[in-house]
Amino acid sequence: MHDMIRKTLATAALALLAAPMTYAIESAPAANAAAAVSATTAPTTRPALSTTPGVLKIDEYRETDLWGRIRSGYAIPDLDNQLVARHTKGYSARPDSLKRISGRASLYLYHVVQELEKRGMPTELALLPVIESAFNPQALSTASAAGLWQFVPGTGKDYDLKQNMFKDERRGVLASTDAALSYLQRLYTMFGDWQLALAAYNWGEGNVQKAIKKNQALGKPTDFESLADLMPAETRNYVPKLQAVKNIIANPAQYNVALPAIDNQPYFTAVDKTSDIDLAVAAQLAEMSLDEFKALNPQFNKPVITGGEKTKILLPKENAEKFHLNLAQWGRELSTWTTHKITGARVSIASLASKFGTTPEIIRQANNIPAKSTIKAGSTILVPKVSAGNAGDIAENIIDNAVVAFEAERTPRVKASVSRYKAKAGGPSKNRISRNTSSKRKQR
């Protein structure tokens, strides 16, 4: 079925792809990797994408629907086994779930496809966040992997994704996509095979290398399916899941999936930010709800966006125009937040709130302070600005180095009155004191 579709794309029926589709879906740096993709994996039944980064042949397609554009760039060899069949059936049996994923994907997918084409990479890799995060940039795994592409903290640092008190770039659309594609390119260069590169993305390159060496020592093949029995269940199912999504995208009607199309045009544009600005103010200037703003800018952890000229915010094009117009007429301070370092132990949230003219609830919410917890000495927290003296932006060294730590609140201990245990004769009864004290220990 896939070969037939690709042959159609490569011949006279390319014009069909210019018409809007009625179906859609929801649910590592190396300069020579792009050339290798085309040389070793691109099917000969479709026009090859340019292998030179930055030089595209998308004029050949002129898709009006983004799913058609993705489909025309498939380049990873198909996998066909029982796991693929099972996952294809599973995804297609949940059209409501696919529709929700599609709604989230519509914000980010054009950018991902564009970046893949710039690098000459297979466009079905744009579907990988369906498997990783269901296109939810706030997704967080039990292993602390975060964002659309599910980077763990260590790998995020390896690819220069900043993770500090104010932002986590593993969740940022631009930074995390660039890092994920660089990582995938590196893995493809290492293994020369996209299926093994994907397995390594999920399992780690070291584990895949060990599995290859084990099969080589036994004289066995080292392709993905031959190594699958050596992989954990999650990795064994990882590539089949991607293939299942590919199958549905290739022909949604075949699987009785009817989903809204995603326009083949940018959803957002990047706006440079030159000073601190509250999230709520930025959303107001862009005439967006706070939830809409956060969906495009999920990397910001606090109610204030810091970072000066290095930081960009993403806005739909029409909202970016509104943002600039409203900003020019704002005439007020853009940020109402600053930082405060806790120098003494046992500082109560209530006393901090009183000092900065706010409520304990606002202090807790701004700093994600758990219930029944207080802040440890040495922590830096976010507080409202209360004077002109702290009207400036938060310093870069604070942004990079600020930490906050919590500890459980201590309940005051009240000493029992010995007089209650005095015997009628007037003297203390040592035995009664001992028994009652023991009983209270057990109750605590």
UniProtKB/TrEMBL annotation:
Coiled coil: none
Signal peptide location: 1-24
Keyword Signal: yes
Protein name: Membrane-bound lytic murein transglycosylase D
One BP annotation, GO: peptidoglycan metabolic process
Protein's UniProt keywords contain Transmembrane: no
Family statement drawn from the similarity comment of this UniProt entry: Belongs to the transglycosylase Slt family.
Keyword vocabulary terms for this entry: Signal
Positions of the LysM domain: 338-383
Pfam family for this entry, one: LysM
Species of provenance: Massilia yuzhufengensis
GO molecular function, one term: peptidoglycan lytic transglycosylase activity
CDD domains named in the record: MltD-like
A cellular component term, taken from the record's GO annotations: membrane
Region (Disordered): 417-444
